[in-house]
Amino acid sequence: MTEPDQKREEQPAGTSAAPDVDTLAETMTAAVPPPEAVQPPHEPEDGPSTLSAEATDAALEAEEALEALAEAEAAEEEAGGETVPGGQAAETAATVQDEAAPPTVSLETLKRFVLTPKLERKVAKAIDEEKLKKAGKLARRLHAADLADLLERLSYEQRAILLEVLREGFDPEVLPYLDENVRDDVIEILGPEAVGRAIAELDSDDAIAIIEDLEDAEKQAILEAVEPTGRALLEEGLTFPEYSAGRLMQRELVAVPSHWTVGQTIDFMRTNPNLPDDFYEIFVVDPRFRPIGLVSLGKLLHNKRPIRLRDIMSGDFVRLQAETPQEEVAHLFRQYGLVSAPVVNDSGRLLGRVTVDDVVDIVDEEAEEDILRLGGVSESDLQSNVLETTKQRFLWLLINLGTAIMASGVIAIFEATIAQVVALAVLMPIVASMGGNAGTQTVTVVVRALAMRDLSTSNALRVIWKEALVGLLNGVLFAVLIGAIAAFWFEPLIGAVIAAAMVINMLVAGLSGALIPIGLERLKIDPAVASSVFLTTVTDVIGFFAFLGLAAAFVL
C-alpha cells in the first residue's frame, strides 16, 4: 500500500482527507497553464476593434506627434546633419502613444476610430489643405456608420473630394446609413456603375431601400450595373407596395425540407457558401416552398444529428404577407417578441424574411417622424437646401397663422373690456399658455398610446375621463395659485376671474387633448400631424373667451 493510501485509511469515518500537497501541486499544474503557455494579446481575426472616443483622440494626438517627429528628422537630413529641434516632438510622441494604447498593442494595430469632433476637423482640414492621402487614411479607419456621419457633416465640395479619394475600395455598407439627400449626392458623385457594384454586395433589403426613391432613369442605370440574378430579385422587390413587408424583407435566408435531419442541416450550412451573414432561425418548408415551421439555431445545435427537423420544429409562428404595412410588422414583432418572420405571397410561398434589426429601424423612423411632424418639419430639413426647407415649413406656419387669427378675433370681441381694465391684457396670456401646455401633455400621452396600440375603443372612455379629471384637478391647483397672485397684484375680483378661467381652460385642455387625437385617428388622419394645431386653437379660443367673458360679466 502506498503512503497516500495509508493516509486515506487512517482518516476517521465521516470526514474527508485533506489533499496531499504534492497531489494538489500536480492538480494545479494540470489545470493552470505555465506562464510560457499563456498567449499574449492579439488582434481578433475578424478585424481590429473600435476605439472609444477618448482613445481615438489620444491616438490622433500620438500620430500628430509622430508626424511632427518624422518631419523634424526629414528636415535634419535635408540640412546635412544640422540639429533640428525635434526632441520635444519625440518626447510628446512617446508620451501620448503610451497613453493612447496598451503596452501589449502597438498603435499600428488600432485601425478603427470612432467619429469625434477632433477627427472630423482633422479630415476637413486635410481636405482643405489638399492632403488627400491623409484624409483618406483617417476616413478609412472609421466604421461605415461613422463614415456616413462624416460625409453628412462635410460640405458638398469636401464630400465630393473625399469620395473621389475613397472611390477605390469604397465600403458599400456606408450607403444604407446615409441621409437620403446626402445619399443622392453620393450616388451622383460615384456614378451608377460604381453604385451598382456596391449595392450588389449589400443585403437585398438595404439595396432596395437605397434605389427605391431614385428617379426612374437613375434607378434603371444602377440596376443595369447589377448582375442579372441580383437585378431580378431587386426588380421583384420594387414591385411590392412602399413601406410594406415586401420592401422590407431580405431575400437571403436558410430554408430546408422537413424530412432533413439535424446532421444534414448542419452539414448543409457548413458547406454552403451562400448563407446569409446573420440569421437566427431556419425555415422548414414543404415541397411547394411554403413555410411550415421554424427551428432556431440553438434548438438545432442542442439536438442529435439523426433527429428530423419535423420533430423539433415549431409550427406556431407568424407569417407576414408581402403587402403587410411596415407599422403592422413592427407591432407584431413587438407584441410577440419575434426575432425573424417569414414573408409569403398570396399562395403562401416563401419569399424572404424580416429580421428584428429591420424592425428596430422602422420603430426609430416612426418615432422620429412623429416627433418631427408635431413640429411641422421633416427629417430631411437638416440636409435640404434653403428653398426646399422653406417650402416644407410654409404650409404648417400658414395653418398656425390661421389659428392665431381666430384667437385674435376672440380678443377683438372684448376690445372695450380690455380698454377699461388693462390688467386683463397682462393676465390673459397666462390662461391660454397654461391650457396649451396642459393639453400638449395629454396629446403626447394619447398619441403615443395610439401608436403603440395601447388605446382602443374598450378603454377610450376611461382614458378620456381620466385626462379630464387630471385637467380639472390641475386647474383647481393652479387657479388657487394664480388667483392669489392676481389678487395681490391687482384686485381680488380679478384674481377670482382668472382662477375661474384657469379651471375652465385646464378642464377643456384635458378633454380636447384626449378627444382630438382619438377623433383624428377615427377619421384616418395622422394624429401626430394635426393634433397640435387643433389643440392650440381650442385652448387659445376657450382660454381667452372664458377669461375675458367672465371679466366682462363681473369686473365691469
From TrEMBL:
Domain CBS span(s) in chain numbering: 313-369
GO cellular component: plasma membrane
One Pfam family recorded for the sequence: MgtE_N
Main localization (coarse): membrane
SMART domains: CBS, MgtE_N
SUPFAM superfamilies xref list: CBS-domain pair (SSF54631), MgtE membrane domain-like (SSF161093), MgtE N-terminal domain-like (SSF158791)
Localization per Swiss-Prot or TrEMBL: Cell membrane; Membrane
Superkingdom, natural source: Bacteria
Annotated keywords: CBS domain, Cell membrane, Magnesium, Membrane, Metal-binding, Transmembrane, Transmembrane helix, Transport
Gene Ontology MF term list: magnesium ion transmembrane transporter activity; metal ion binding
Basic and acidic residues composition bias: residue spans: 1-11
Membrane topology: Multi-pass membrane protein
Metal-binding keyword on record: yes
Residues that span the membrane, as ranges: 394-414, 420-447, 468-490, 496-520, 532-555
Region listing for Disordered, in residue ranges: 1-103
Gene3D superfamilies referenced in this protein's UniProt entry, alphabetically: CBS-domain (3.10.580.10), MgtE N-terminal domain-like (1.25.60.10), SLC41 divalent cation transporters, integral membrane domain (1.10.357.20)
Subunit structure as annotated in this protein's UniProt entry: Homodimer.
NCBIfam families cross-referenced by the UniProt entry: mgtE
Family: Belongs to the SLC41A transporter family.
Function of the molecule: Acts as a magnesium transporter.
Protein name (record): Magnesium transporter MgtE
Naturally occurring in which organism (per UniProt): Oceanibaculum indicum P24
